[in-house]
User: Fold these one by one.
Assistant:
Number 1:
Amino acid sequence: MGDSHIDMSIRLRHPTERVCERCGRTEHWDADAESWQVATDSVGSIYCIHEWDINGSFVPFKTSA
């Protein structure tokens, strides 16, 4: 009886863009700066207490066989 082994790689993903649900400000993740950066065409307010569009639909772990 042989061993059957499935090699599955698990990769951690992260969001690359976020939008404030209150003011519409859009930011993107800058990997070089390791921080969120305001998009050049973004609207919104710097004084807003941002409520980012985090709703649980993003899946941070992805498996590949």
Number 2:
Amino acid sequence: MLTIQSNVSLKSYNTFGIDATARYLVEVDNDEDIQTLLQLPDVQTLPKLILGGGSNLLLTQDFNGLVVKINIKGIRTVKEDQENVWVRVGAGENWHEFVLYCVERGLAGLENLSLIPGTVGAAPMQNIGAYGVEIKDTFERLEAVHILTGQKRVFTNEECRFGYRDSVFKNELKGEYIICNVQFKLQKTPVFHVSYGDIQKTLDQMGVKELNIKAISDAVIKIRRSKLPDPVEIGNAGSFFKNPEISVMQYEHLKLMYPEIPGYVINNEVVKVPAGWLIEQCGWKGKRFGSIGVHARQALVLVNYGGGKGTEIKQLAEKIQSSVEEQFGIRLHTEVNFI
């Protein structure tokens, strides 16, 4: 049974804890609810905001339309062979809890993506990634409902056009589909990814003798908790900016002026530079401006200490972008979506 609420505070629906108001809000528990909802004449004319865990958005104003909160649950094995297991997951499942579900059952491929906030349905939209692994590496397909027609469609890995924190759902199909479920192809025999970041160092500190996916998951959780604030304690959306990719020539030029600048070569053509390092060099790390600021341990994270406005965080982000561009000639782009 669908219940559409009016004038709902979205403070508890976004990890920044921004107290914006939705004109209408409805929670959906299955695909049929979505299709029924989209057939309602009054709903068809309203602007819509599809909401998962609210961990990748910044509310800069009230939303004068319908917020659709996706609560579709369920995890089931679709098929398996000697090497792989295919798992289908409801879009409303908590991402980290799903990763732990896989780790506990020895299903490899997602362990490096432990403790990333949000829901399963939002993961392919952003092509979430961490520590050398991205969603696209294990993603097989998803089912989505077209908002205008109510028709279901299957998207394959190729059709999602995954890029760095990017997909077709952030570009030409932005705002056109509601993701209902996602299917992953996971491995019974793991391929370990421990060279990125501090994973190997943390594993050594933990005294891990025999490598396994639970140890990697535990190490990633330990690293993330040491660097990133808990949204329950301090409002944030994790990494606010993407790590920029620049040409090898530009990187070499910057290295002459800043010998300590870190970078990771990709395909011998481009270099990924940590956005957090650039922001820190510009003096933003740990800066506080009233109710908002830049986190003291991770310059990549903008925070709401309580009572901050989305417009204030947006203005801070723009100032950071300008200062980084002025000093390094690099334009930072946001991971977070502005509403």
